Amino acid sequence: MTLAKRSVLAAALAMATTAAGAQPEAPARGFAVAGAGFVKDGKPYQVISGEIHYVRIPRAYWRDRLRKAKAMGLNTITTYAFWNVHEPRPGVYDFSGQNDIAAFIRDAQAEGLNVILRPGPYVCAEWELGGYPAWLLKDRKLVLRSTDPEYTAAVERWIVRLGQEVKPLLLANGGPIVAVQLENEYGAFGDDKAYLQGLEATYRRAGLADGILFTSNQASDLARGSLPHLPSVVNFGSGGAANAVAKLEAYRPAGLRMVGEYWAGWFDKWGEDHHETDGRKEAEEMRFMLQRGYSISLYMVHGGTTFGWMNGADSHTGTDYHPDTTSYDYDAPIDEAGNPRYKYALIANAIAAVTGKPAAPTPAPTVAVTFPVSPIRRSASLWDHLPEPVRAKLPMTFEELDQNYGYVLYRVALPAGARKTLTLKGMHSYAQVYVDRKLVGALDRRLGQETVTLPARAGAATLDVLVENTGRVNYSRAIRTEQTGLTGAVTLDGTVLEDWRMYRLPMDDLSGLRFTAAPCTGPCFYEAEMTVDRPGDTYLDMRGVYKGQLWLGAHNLGRFWSIGPVHTLYAPAPWMQAGANRIVAFDLLGDATDRLTTFKAPIYGKITTTREAQ
Questions:
Q1: pLDDT of 127
Q2: What is the mean pLDDT of residues 180-207?
Q3: Which residues contact 177 (CB under 8 A, 6 or more apart)?
């Protein structure tokens, strides 16, 4: 008997019982997999979801973005839980303000949306170390994404703590969470079923497996990353629908038909091209998959911004390195500033055509504005703001220094000598090298650079190596060796340099900076003012600076780098005030010519329509 016939029979029996005088039973509240699809509250249900990350959107805009996603025709929102923002130090948890994942989920429920939760612990997401806290790497023996007891104990503590926040929001408890993803694309990393089974047991102890639990993998990795008793869904990008769904159906002929990630865009990396994908093709494939009965989650429906230090980096071989930009616009249907782009209406119409529900009017865009920004008024040299150093025979990594992000200045004495080659083995990820505070070279992990020639020295000198964490790799087995800073031997023509001083520069508190009107060159903090008549979204044009970090008031807007392809930083209205707004930029190669302006739209360099193979 088909599901439809069973439903008709159940309704007839209920009517007969009511006619006999008994009270009708309320329909059971629940969400389950039934064959190739879902059943919600006893009725067939097609999930039409989109990914939104609460940490990439100013909290004041959460409801706006959720509302626009629903207006596009979505009935569900998918999000990761980002371990490293919630547990910045071992045993220290933060679920407040911007990190209040439970509030975000409740906001989704208030907008009439279901939620699919992806707790990880690994999330990828072009996010720093794939969501893992950097402090896990302090112990070089610990093995990420494995059955290593030190690793699994940390995961257990985190998942159980997360459960305290989100378990009350499961559907069975009156919340909107209808399904939970186990791990994330594990098949692209390994095939250890014991690892997945152990993680499933952790989820169950945390109360996160009381409803639907499923795995999610790319088409070629389905067998490696799935468990036989859990539904398996497939991930892929636009242009690959026919091939991917065929592989899922071949792998699980009678299983759930769902796309866990349909990449409706792509992310940008520093020094490479800006990505724009074909919205017409994406709408066409959405219609194809929905008509075929598939549930779908768009990745991303709204990308937002990777504020602060939290961008990840791509790596496939472990030796290549491609750090991601601050902007996570993703060429998604809803752009970085929360405005529908042309593909929004195309996808909305495709959804309406299949569901029979008329598409809502496309929301009006929020018009960005510009504000005057003063010239640099004051500055502060990094050299004048060094903290007390940590001393050690050999360089220590960021993690060994109990520092997650930012910069570390490594200092060692140099003897007099001839011109020689300095080698920084395993330098992660960008370094400027100084002799007696004179810049002699820069090393970039993207380019595989680990050596620089030091000039001859008539007397003793000081070697300074200023290292930036440009973003730890978030993809591939390289995550296991993503210690940051000077991670290997430092040698001068083969001789190991010893007796180091290391200055921790997390730049998480700028209140101690002493700004003056004196000119400053080199690694400096620069202060300017943006005058706001009425707060409004804007883009800071960063083409007048080189490489560094920018703060608007207390908010770290993210990285800038003149190599592009993104030459703006999104500045949201809720993070402004009427009147003077302080801007501080840390620029590695700053001078009196540094200049900031505002713009009404993002500024991109060269554009590509080709998505790299994943």
A1: 98
A2: 98
A3: 105, 114, 115, 116, 117, 166, 169, 170, 171, 211
